[in-house]
Design brief:
7 helices; mainly alpha; 116 residues
Length: 116
C-alpha cells in the first residue's frame, strides 16, 4: 500500500466521506467539526487535505504516514487517518481563506447526512 493510492482513492469526495465514516464515529465527528468550521463537507475537507498532502508533504511527513500504515489491518484507512490527524492538529487550520464553502445544492448531494 502506498500514499499515492490513498491520494488517488480519497481525492474523490464521496469515497473520502465514506472512508472517514468507516474509521469510526469519534474520528468522523472530529473531522466533521473542523469541516463545519470551514464551511465545507467532510468529503470536500478530506479530499482537499489528501490532495494537498500528496502534492506538498515532506519526505518526513510521508515516512510518518507510511510508519502508521505498516502492519495495519487496514493500511489505507490508517494512512488516511494519519494524514487527517496532521491537519486536525494544525493550528493554522482556522485560517479559512483557502477554503471555499460548499453548498449541498452545488454538489447535488445531501450534506453529510450520516454524521451526528
Amino acid at each position: 500500500m502506498s500514499i499515492d493510492e490513498i491520494v488517488h482513492t480519497c481525492s474523490n469526495e464521496h469515497i473520502a466521506r465514506a472512508a472517514v465514516a468507516s474509521i469510526g464515529v469519534s474520528f468522523a465527528s472530529r473531522v466533521k467539526f473542523v469541516a463545519d468550521l470551514l464551511g465545507v463537507s467532510v468529503g470536500a475537507f478530506t479530499a482537499k487535505t489528501v490532495r494537498a498532502f500528496g502534492k506538498e508533504a515532506s519526505a518526513d511527513a510521508r515516512r510518518e504516514v507510511m510508519r502508521a500504515m505498516i502492519r495495519s489491518d487496514q493500511p489505507i484507512l490508517r494512512g488516511l487517518e494519519a494524514i487527517l490527524e496532521r491537519k486536525l492538529e494544525d493550528s493554522s487550520l482556522l485560517d479559512r481563506r483557502e477554503w471555499r464553502p460548499v453548498r449541498p445544492s452545488q454538489t447535488g448531494v445531501a450534506r453529510d447526512c450520516c454524521y451526528p
